[in-house]
Write a structure and sequence with these properties.
There is one protein chain. The chain has a six-stranded antiparallel β-sheet with strand order 11-10-13-18-15-16, with no helix packed on it. It is mainly beta. The longest helix has 25 residues. It has six domains: 98 residues, Jelly Rolls (Sandwich), CATH 2.60.120; 123 residues, Galactose-binding domain-like (Jelly Rolls, Sandwich), CATH 2.60.120.260; 76 residues, Immunoglobulins (Immunoglobulin-like, Sandwich); 78 residues, Immunoglobulins (Immunoglobulin-like); 75 residues, Sandwich (Immunoglobulin-like), CATH 2.60.40; 40 residues, no CATH class. 11% of the residues lie in helices and 39% in strands.
Length: 588
């Protein structure tokens, strides 16, 4: 237990030393002087004399607390707990108390009296804070900075705020106020030479509660802005996220009357800051992005944020991969590198986009044939790893799904009709291909199928005649029947009836009779065949041309002399005879 406790405390000590060394070189941009904390006073080693002008930019914690210089209370300060700038002259008492130093302490004896000092100037010379130079930025010495009355109105170019000289400045003249009120950059970066802006620095004596950076992003087509608070007025780097890579409208607003701006600059990295990775490249898939880059000297590790969430905590290699991403989506990536001695780089930011999901290939080697009512297709299925199945559409209506066979058959088409078939490949994640499209028009209808041959053919032997009957065919497109005698077609055109009489034949002779069916397309069925032999015992047939009156008169003359004797004996058989012969008359 003692060993564990010792190791734990030693680890805390090492961490504290590491943290101290990591940030020991961090510049001080303001000083909080606290009566309760010895050593918090601000001591400046400087040569000065009685009558010199001192300017102090400070903020009291409470209304009644203020500052003392070399043990002498400030005179003329405002009893307010807001920021104020006080200018006065060195008195003899101040000089006598410490002729080689200017020491600022708090006034008042109660615990908790605190004053924040932002700057101290002796005449035009800045004594505190010890501001680092503004060179090393993106607009060093540029004459592309303008001070203007308002956007789009009178403006004048100047290099007074980009020359890294704190003796030159732009003053927002009270005689012209509120007309001269903002700074503008004519451009920052371009399409061909983009600027990677991560930080903004300004040195100003402004007592405004905040300044604002405004920029138009031509890519996103939106206005963007950032608020700069007083703690950044003395050169402390202000980190900017989402600054466009180029813009012709960069404005710095919010200055008050009598304010002076001494220096401004924009930076990729702050001068002296540990460098970040370089030569960054990435390769995106539909669900991952792989980064590769060059490591800086003294590199220890890096951290990666995606959409402001920490995703990689301790990357020590020259590459990393982001996984489980959503396809066809954009991600904001931020990378910060850390050195072996605790230095922290500026942020490297970029936007990456995953690829959309790729569909499988379409079917290939397609072969097809069609007629007036059917379509037959064969093809090769896609060989992609992500292929799952096919979907088939007919005239934009899905008719098949989850098809995995290499062929298609349809036999329900209509003659002389336009059709468009599309065969779509579907991936295992539901992504569909453009589809293979086949458009065609079916052929005209050509009926080449004959009817079934007639059945149930019966032959009745008559006197010098044969009477044929058969069963009716059931085809919907049946035109009629043809009758053949000894191989010769007797009917000139198809007859509709399923009964037919062959007259004027020779009794005692055997005849072959045949019947075939005919459809509307002229297709003729096979013939059904029978044999018959007329004889004198059969019923005679009336020749064509006799009318019903002729039949009636003939029958009457034939039986007139015997009518009374035979009337009752032959009336019934005669009725059957007449009926039978009348049928033969009309169907002969």
């Amino acid at each position: 237990m003692k060993k564990f406790l010792f190791c734990f405390l030693f680890g805390l000590f090492i961490a504290a030393v590491y943290h101290q060394s990591a940030y020991a070189a961090e510049p001080e941009y303001y000083r909080v002087i606290d009566k309760s904390k010895p050593g918090s006073e601000l001591s400046l080693n400087v040569n000065y004399k009685v009558g010199d002008t001192i300017t102090v930019d400070f903020k009291q914690n409470l209304d009644w607390y203020s500052l003392r210089l070399n043990g002498v209370d400030f005179k003329g300060y405002k009893q307010i707990s807001t920021r104020q700038v006080l200018t006065f002259q060195i008195t003899q008492e101040m000089y006598d108390n410490n002729p080689n130093h200017i020491v600022l302490t708090t006034r008042g004896g109660d615990t908790g009296s605190r004053v924040t000092v932002y700057s101290v100037s002796l005449g035009d010379k800045l004594l505190y804070p010890f501001v680092q130079g503004f060179n090393g930025g993106l607009i060093d010495g540029s004459n592309d900075v303008y001070y203007e009355t308002k956007a789009g109105s009178h403006s004048s170019p100047t290099s007074k705020v980009t020359d890294d000289d704190f003796n030159t400045f732009i003053k927002f003249d009270p005689d012209n106020y509120p007309y001269i009120k903002q700074l503008r950059l004519s451009h920052l970066g371009s399409k061909n030479s983009p600027a990677n802006v991560n930080y903004f620095r300004i040195y100003t004596d402004s007592i405004a509660s905040s300044l604002k950076i405004e920029v138009y992003d031509p890519v996103a087509e939106v206005n963007k802005s950032w608020t700069v608070t007083p703690e950044y007025y003395k050169g402390k780097p202000f980190e900017i996220e989402g600054f466009p890579s180029y813009s012709s409208h960069v404005q710095i607003k919010g200055f008050q009357k009598d304010d002076k701006a001494y220096a401004i600059n924009f930076y990729d990295t702050v001068p002296g800051q540990f460098k970040n990775i370089s030569d960054v490249e990435y390769i995106a898939s539909d669900d991952s992005v792989k980064f590769s880059y060059t490591l800086p000297e003294n590199f220890s590790y890096l951290k990666v944020w995606v959409n402001d969430q920490l995703k990689k905590d301790m990357v020590e290699d020259s590459s990393f991969e982001l996984n489980q991403l959503i396809y066809d989506s954009s991600y904001n990536v931020k990378i910060i590198s850390y050195s072996k001695d605790g230095g922290i780089s500026s942020s490297y930011r970029t936007v990456v986009k995953t690829k959309p999901l790729q569909p499988p290939s379409d079917i290939t080697n397609v072969k097809y044939k069609f007629d007036y009512k059917s379509l037959h297709m064969t093809y090769d299925l896609p060989k992609d790893d992500n292929f799952s199945h096919l979907e088939v559409y007919k005239n934009n209506v899905q008719i098949r799904s989850k098809l995995t066979e290499p062929e298609l058959n349809f036999d329900d088409l209509q003659p002389s009709t336009d059709y468009t078939y599309k065969v779509v490949s579907v991936s295992n994640r539901g992504i569909r291909s453009e589809g293979y499209i086949l458009s065609f028009k079916t052929e005209e209808y050509k009926d080449e199928v004959p009817p079934e041959k007639p059945t149930g053919l019966k032959v009745t032997n008559g006197n010098e005649s044969l009477v044929l009957t058969w069963d009716k065919n059931s085809e919907f497109d049946l035109e009629g029947y043809h009758v053949y005698l000894d191989g010769k077609k007797i009917t000139d055109k198809p007859i509709k009836s399923n009964m037919y009489t062959l007259p004027e034949l020779e009794n005692g002779k055997t005849y072959q009779v045949e019947v075939s069916a005919i459809d509307m397309s002229g297709n003729e069925s096979e013939k059904t065949s029978k044999y018959g032999s007329p004889n004198t015992k059969g019923m005679p047939v009336f020749k064509a041309g006799y009318s019903l009156v002729d039949v009636s008169n003939g029958v009457g003359s034939w039986f007139s002399s015997l009518w009374l004797l035979l009337a009752f004996s032959v009336s019934i058989p005669l009725a059957f005879y007449i009926s039978h012969r009348v049928k033969a008359l009309f169907f002969a």
